[in-house]
C-alpha cells in the first residue's frame, strides 16, 4: 500500500490519473442515456454530465489529496486567492483579453451549430448557470488545481505547456478554431493559478467566457 501511494504521487501517475478521470467523467450521464432514462438532448443529460464531473474530477482528486497524498487541499489551490486585489485585477484582465475572441467565435456558424441550445430560455439559463458552472468548477480544479500544483514541484514552468497540451487534447472534436484557443487560454488560466495560488480565478474566467459565448450564440 505504501509503495502504491508513492507511485501515485509521481508526476507521471498524476498525469495519467487525471486523464483517466476526465475521460470517464461523463460516463454516468451516458450510462443513463444507454438505459433510456433521458436523451442527450434533455437538460438532465447536461446536468448529469456536470454532476458526474463534480463527483469524478473534483471529489475524487480531493479524496486522493487527503487520503493518498496526505496533504491539505489548499496546497492544490482549493482556497481563496492570495492577495485578493491582485487576483481580481488579473482575473478581470484575462477576461478582457479573451472577450473579443469569444465574441468573434460566437458569431461563427460552426460555433453556433455546436453550441446551439434550442429556443428555450429556461433551458439556456439552466445550462449556462447551473450545469456549466458546476462543470467548470470541477474541471478547473482538476487542471488548474490538482494537476497544476501536483506537477509544479517537479516540472516548474513546464507544467504550463504540459497541462495546456492535455487540456487541448480533450477539446479535439469541437469547432476547429476552438482547439488552438484552448491551448492559449489554458496557459493564461495556469498563470492565474500560479500567481494567486488558487484555482478559483480560473473558474471565474472559464465560466464568464463560456457564458458570454452562450449569450452570443443564443441571443445574437
Q: How is the secondary structure organized here?
A:
Elements: H1 2-8, H2 11-24, H3 27-34, H4 43-67, H5 84-106, H6 109-114, H7 121-155, H8 158-169, H9 178-196, H10 200-219
Helix pairs in contact: 2-4, 2-7, 3-4, 4-7, 5-9, 5-10, 7-8, 7-9, 7-10, 8-9, 9-10
Structure description:
The protein has 220 residues and is mainly α. It contains ten helices and no strands. It has helices at residues 2-8, 11-24, 27-34, 43-67, 84-106, 109-114, 121-155, 158-169, 178-196, 200-219. The mean pLDDT is 92.
Order of helices and strands: HHHHHHHHHH
Mean pLDDT: 92
- Give the strand tally: 0
- What kind of sheet is the major sheet? none
By DSSP (H or I, 4+ residues per run), the number of helices equals 10
The gross shape turns out to be: globular
N-to-C span:
56 Å
Range of strand content? under 5%
Structural class: mainly alpha
Helix content: over 70%
Radius of gyration: 18 Å
Low-confidence stretches: none
Domain unit count: 1
